[in-house]
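Ligand: flavin-adenine dinucleotide. Inputs:
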Amino acid sequence: MERAGDVAVIGAGLIGLGIAFELASRGATVRVYERGEPARAASWAGAGMLAPYSESTGDEQMLALGAQSLSRYPEFVDRVRAASGIDPHLHLDGIVSAAFDEERLRELRAHAQALARRGVDCELLDRESTLAAEPALARTVLGALLRRSEGYVDNRRLGRALVAACEAKGVTIVRSATDVAVEADARRVLGVRSHLGFTPASYVVVAAGAWSASVPGIPTQFAPAVRPVKGQMLALAAPVGFLKRTTWIPGAYLVPREDGRLLVGATMEDAGFDERVTGSGLRTLLDAVHMGAPSLLDFAVTEVWAGLRPGTPDGRPLIGPTPIEGLILATGHYRNGILLTPVTAAYVADCIERGDAEALAPWLRMTTA
Ligand SMILES: Cc1cc2nc3c(=O)[nH]c(=O)nc-3n(C[C@H](O)[C@H](O)[C@H](O)COP(=O)(O)OP(=O)(O)OC[C@H]3O[C@@H](n4cnc5c(N)ncnc54)[C@H](O)[C@@H]3O)c2cc1C
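Predicted complex:
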């Protein structure tokens, strides 16, 4: 690689690790600074749904970016598995959205028609087919939409795999790093300062998730406008296969895992950097399960946790080069950072390797903190 001899990445979530893995695979020398443990934070707390269509808010460019990342997932996971020896458990067997009232059913019908026009593989299920597909749902269900190409990845396994894959490719991961700061002059980036002292770098990628706005040393006019959006989740010990696919019910989603955990998520809270699990958060989730899939309430609750999504004012990620030469943002992935890891990694690597930032043009807005 011509110009990417030295890249520093700040933040070892899936986004920072994905970029480091991609760059190292292309021959770059990469150093990742993580103030805690790698692959924890939001990347550990998330549900791992790969759901550009189910999660669509009507933003066509976001939908295209998500669909592009989804299509890259199998190949990305193959490469990470080969480099790490860890299988991230990718399941692209569909996501079910269940309707419990006529209005939701109408919405799902309209969504099915819109998806069919785009050539997306989906199917409307009547009540009987819905219950046959997911017997755990309440008998009051009216029907469902199955989007066949979506699914989930076990994001905790993907995180562990990416750490191992990065290290196998020669990436240096500096754990428990303190006083991490970008060093730049008015024109270009110089490197990273940390408890280890100053290390020069031609490129510095800010991938610090919900904390990206406060990474020291980013010139204030370019500090990304990212804020935390809290999500609480819980896990139930259900028999493997009790829920066959990721399933949306009103107010929550249910995501299976190969290890028998069944995840229930997630709240959406504007609570600053508070990561406590609260009674009201759990109640919101359990009320939704009570309505949509009450048989699940017989299973033991084995884990509860919370995480902070990196949100932006317009709900879109901030990815790409800033006017400070060599300073690149890769943050603000909000509800879809696990889905968007492969495409973010590839686009940022293209930008550093070839100076090709064309694909990133829609994603770099100078919305500053
Ligand atoms: C409850 C919940 C459910 C979710 N479900 C899904 C889902 O189903 N599908 C999906 O696609 N997405 C989901 N998301 C969103 C997804 O998890 C995030 O968008 C994604 O993980 C963001 O990754 P990241 O690497 O940017 O941030 P993070 O994973 O938060 O990593 C940022 C890292 O930067 C480090 N850091 C911060 N500041 C500094 C500093 N100054 N110096 C050094 N290191 C620093 C932090 O310690 C952290 O390790 C969910 C999120 C939550 C909270």
